[in-house]
Amino acid sequence: MAISKTCDGVHRRDFLRVGAIGAGLTLSGYLRMAQAGEVQPGAKAKSAIFINLTGGPSHMDTFDLKPNSASEYRGTFNPIKTNVDGVEICEHLPLLAQCADKFAILRGVSHTLGAHELGTEYVNTGNRPIPSLEYPGYGSVVTKEKPGEQDIPPFVAIPNSNQRPGFLGVQYAPLNTTATPRAGQPFNVRGISLGGGITVAEIERRANLLADLDRTFAAVESNSQLLTGLDRFSEQAHAIITSKRARAAFDISQESAEFAKPYGTDPFGLSCLLATRLVESGVRFVATTLGGWDTHQDNFTKLKTSNLPKLDMGLSALLNGLEQKGLLESTVVYVTGEFGRTPKINTRSAEGGRDHYPRCMFMLMAGGGVRGGQVIGESDDNAMAPRHEAITPDDVAASFYHALGIDHTHEYHTNTGRPITIVRDGHVIKQLFS
User: Fold this and answer.
1) Is residue 47 included in any domain, yes or no?
2) Per-residue pLDDT tens digits for 355-364
3) CATH code, 54
4) 411-413 and 155-158 as β-strands: parallel, antiparallel, unpaired?
5) Fewer Cβ atoms within 10 Å of its own Cβ: the N or the C terminal residue of the chain?
6) Range of the structural domain that residue 247 is part of
7) pTM for the whole thing?
């Protein structure tokens, strides 16, 4: 299932589909051979939510407006005041304006990769892509460093994710829901929900058969670490699939109507509701997506009528909902697209559009010890470049890991023994946490 299609024809497809137990207990492959890493003490965040704005949102029409610039730059949107003195954002984000004290705005974020695929890989890993190596996404690193409870999946993508496990291996890939929740409809997750007439009793019977086979092989090769791993992760997969707690974690209908109402009925808002519920249930990392930001034409109509209202409702409800449940301090939230869009409006349509522009963009962070209500960084008068020193995706990645207590300078090793730093070039943005 594609999340969306961008101008270069790239589909954001599922990188992993976890099959049902009837297909051979493939969820155990997803969990296999994961190892706990070292986590720094004192970190506030226990979990993370990553929101990918695929296509590249315009910074000038969202969180970095320039009302005093010439008309060919500023566009048709006006800034509005937020609940933080001196901070203004787009008029079409009124709900986020009323909870601006909960998130930090990073302006003047800059890089040089103007293609969707490369930019997406960069902001989903915190490392500039290189041909010889695929870096793991944030969710895979968090899964390795902060494994969760036995009967809850550690990394869930709604409906799928641009984050791949890279050299860490498929065992650190996300459990993709392959669909987004819909209002008034049961939400089934392949590998969690029991479909196709399969019952828990049938799963138990098959698990017992697998256990008999494991014991048979173990008697022949009693020292096999592979068999030990198979046993251990098959048990975890079985625990997740048969767990009432895991199935309940995906059931947004269990939330009260009062709590669910601010999230609305749009799939993105309901995905944010599900993300809130999953974190509350113990999932370590949730990734979700709002696409459609590739606005080369009709930029202002598309943003005003579709993307901005969806982002406004879903993200504001997420931040307020996490706070209401007492989860905001223990959950770091990271929102980004792959790049910004050209400050100067093109003439490809009657109202114009904006093209790819990695030299200047915005990112948002909240929760997990991040001090909300502040703007870090600044762009120049026409939002064409950082006014001062640029913030890089590497810096934001290092800060994101810092919130989770993960040392971004820690080294992993590939299967050939090559040492690889989690984030190669980034530095923690200390102002985020001060």
Assistant:
1) yes
2) 999 999 999 9
3) 3.40.720
4) unpaired
5) C
6) 21-433
7) 0.85
